[in-house]
Amino acid sequence: MRVNNSTPGPVLVPADLPQPQPAEGELLIRVCAVGVTPTELLWYPTTQTKDGTPRKGAVPGHEFSGVVAGLGKNTNGFDLGQEVYGFNDWFADGATAEFCVTIPESIAPKPATLSHEAAATVPIGALTAWQGLLERAKIQRGERVLIHGAAGSVGIFAVQLAHLHGAHVIATASSANLNFVAELGANEVIDYRASRFEDRTQKVDVVFDGVGGETLDRSWSMLKPGGRLVTIAAEGGSHPDPRSKDAFFIIEPKQKQLVEVAKMLDAGTLKTYIKAVVPLADASNAYSGAVPNQRGYGKLVIAVDG
Fold it and tell me: What are phi and psi of 250, to 5 degrees?
């Protein structure tokens, strides 16, 4: 599947593409499942090359689970036939296809206890939460952490990781997901449609924002002196608070973190959730939101090859 940019809005269309070949230091992956981030069709790397020129016909889907199918020269650490999960470069063709190319640093052995479909829900969500909370915000045991979008594909990992690191977790979600978020480890859950979070809880040490917009703007007032805010919403630097310029971050593939996440998943201390699974033929519906019978939490997955 590749992106058609010539329509009024970008859509996915079927396409026959040559099988990619791994260059030196790269691996060829036979894709079994790929995670869906619907906004990816509008991302800069989907429509532009690294040098800024227009890009057409990109293949989306940059988190995947699959099997090593080819090794470029001077590629170490993985074997042919090994099951792996992880990312590939945002500017490369993604994994909504039978094959993709990546580098060893961006992948790790697949969690042994997970199906390929479940493993494909993990890389972006888990590492975004890990890097936002543990690397950027540096949360400490006993701190109060407010998480927006707690039932989303990133939020579910943020709640779990904050809880596992001894934080007092306050989470916002819709009414249908309040019990689910509490089961993930949230100490306080707030229905964002029924009340303003400012009126329901005290000030916090850390805000992890997965929503943006007005929610992000209102969150600055919730911080204690010296508090930290991290956001994955692209408009994170627009607020007058001087800390806003450092609030937004972009995830980086890190093999060591993928290895640690896989250990936690296999041990059962961390869990992932699938919103729905669709076949490759229905990939366009996954990106447009036209998939029936979805859970209210977790991530959409495209099954490419079992």
Answer: -120, 135
Give residue 44's domain range.
2-122+272-303
CATH number of the structural domain spanning residue 163: 3.40.50.720
Total-model pTM: 0.93
**Is position 15 within any domain?**
yes
Task: Give the chain's domain count.
Answer: 2
**Amino acid 61: pLDDT:** 95
- Tens-place pLDDT, residues 201-240: 999 999 999 999 999 999 999 999 999 999 998 654 455 5
In a domain, 265, yes or no: no
Burial of 289 (0-12, 13-18, 19+ CB in 10 A): exposed
Phi, psi of 279 (to 5 degrees): -75, 165
The mean per-residue pLDDT over the stretch 182-209 comes to: 96
CB contact at 8 A, 173 and 192: yes
Compute the distance between CA of residue 284 and CA of residue 2 in angstroms, rounded to an integer: 9
DSSP alpha helix (H) spans, the chain: 44-47, 116-119, 123-130, 155-164, 178-184, 197-200, 213-219, 255-267, 283-288
Torsion sign across C-alpha atoms 165, 170, 172, 173: positive
Same domain, 117 and 130: no
List the CATH number of the domain containing 39. 3.90.180.10
